[in-house]
Amino acid sequence: MSILKWFERKLFTGEVVQDYGNLRDERTGVARLRTSILLCRRKGKLQLVVRSVGTAPLGASAQYAMIDVTPQTLQRLGEIVSDAKTQLEKEHVA
């Protein structure tokens, strides 16, 4: 494991249970922007971690958003996915 991955795991993600890969991977000029979601266990709690990483020739940045996995969170995420599917189906029919 690289030293950067070790720091990431120690400081931000904890144990990665499942890596769902990149949801977004795009280039804008010389910069590359990636957003991914990880299911992690940190301090005994399950969390969804949304990781956004930007890289460019002269620098890089990373942002992490942690969301505790609770029944309420899972219900809300289910509603979000359902609403997004409904809207997507409406757009494809029209």
| Counted beta strands | 4
Count of structural domains: 1
Strand order within the widest beta sheet: 1-2-3-4
Helix content: 25-40%
Q: How much of the sequence is in beta strands?
A: over 45%
- Output the structural class: alpha+beta
The secondary-structure element order is HEEEEH
Identify the overall geometry.
Answer: flat
Compute the gyration radius: what is it?
A: 16 Å
Q: How would you characterize the largest beta sheet?
A: 4 strands, antiparallel
Average of the residue pLDDT scores: 92
Distance between the first and last residues' Cα: 49 Å
Question: Which oligomeric state applies?
Answer: single chain
Uncertain spans: none
Enumerate how many helices there are, as a single number.
2
Q: What is the compact description of this entry?
A:
The protein has 94 residues and is an alpha+beta fold. Helices cover 36% and strands 51% of the residues. The protein has one domain.
Label this structure with key terms:
94 residues; 2 helices; flat; 4-stranded antiparallel β-sheet; alpha+beta; 4 strands
Topology of helices and strands:
Layout: H1 3-13, E1 15-28, E2 31-42, E3 45-56, E4 59-68, H2 71-93
Antiparallel strand pairs: 1-2, 2-3, 3-4
Question: Can you offer a commentary on this structure?
Answer:
The chain is α+β, with helices and mostly antiparallel strands and 94 residues long. It has one domain (3-69). It has helices spanning 3-13, 71-93; strands at residues 15-28, 31-42, 45-56, 59-68. It has a four-stranded antiparallel sheet with strand order 1-2-3-4. A hairpin with a 2-residue loop joins strand 2 (31-42) and strand 3. The N and C termini lie far apart (49 Å). The mean pLDDT is 92.
